[in-house]
Amino acid sequence: MPPPKLSKLELKIMEALWDHGASSIREVQERFPQKTRPAYTTVQTTVGRLEAKKAVGRVKKIGSANIYDALVSRENAQTRLIDEFLALFGGRAQPIMAHFVEAGKLTLEDVQHAERHLRELAAKESSRGDEKP
């Protein structure tokens, strides 16, 4: 099952859970910066939506407070976002990479790391092709 599509606020709530672990609604709300902190009820409603999407789940109850934790990993959520972003470019990474280079956000070290990773993937693929059933 693919990870659920997350709104900007949902993603920020997920970040709080990924960074700090299982938390109450109040704890999640207090992790937002004071100036941009959403209302308690907004966080509560959004966590309810995340629960319906099976991105978070109630793990226990302390007093009257439900404690929630992430059911979707950061990696899975990021993969969905990246795939959706790439789809805007017809699935081509080259225009994005060119922008990162021009903006100074992609270093030679990043490119070398990507090249090593691509070579490892290619080696795995070729070794699978050599296997006989």
Structure in words:
By secondary structure, the chain is mainly alpha-helical. It has two domains: 8-70, Winged helix-like DNA-binding domain superfamily/Winged helix DNA-binding domain (Arc Repressor Mutant, subunit A); 93-133. It has helices spanning 8-20, 25-30, 40-52, 74-87, 94-102, 108-130; strands at 23-24, 56-62, 65-70. A three-stranded antiparallel β-sheet has the order 1-3-2. The radius of gyration is 20 Å and the shape is elongated.
Biggest pleated sheet? 3 strands, antiparallel
For the secondary structure, the number of strands is: 3
CATH fold-level name of the largest domain: Arc Repressor Mutant, subunit A
- Element string (H = helix, E = strand): HEHHEEHHH
* CATH homology group of the largest domain: Winged helix-like DNA-binding domain superfamily/Winged helix DNA-binding domain
What secondary-structure arrangement, pairings included, does this model have?
Blueprint: H1 8-20, E1 23-24, H2 25-30, H3 40-52, E2 56-62, E3 65-70, H4 74-87, H5 94-102, H6 108-130
Antiparallel strand pairs: 1-3, 2-3
Quick overview:
By secondary structure, this protein is mainly alpha-helical. The chain has helices at 8-20, 25-30, 40-52, 74-87, 94-102, 108-130; strands spanning 23-24, 56-62, 65-70.
Descriptive key words:
Arc Repressor Mutant, subunit A; 133 residues; 6 helices; three-stranded antiparallel sheet
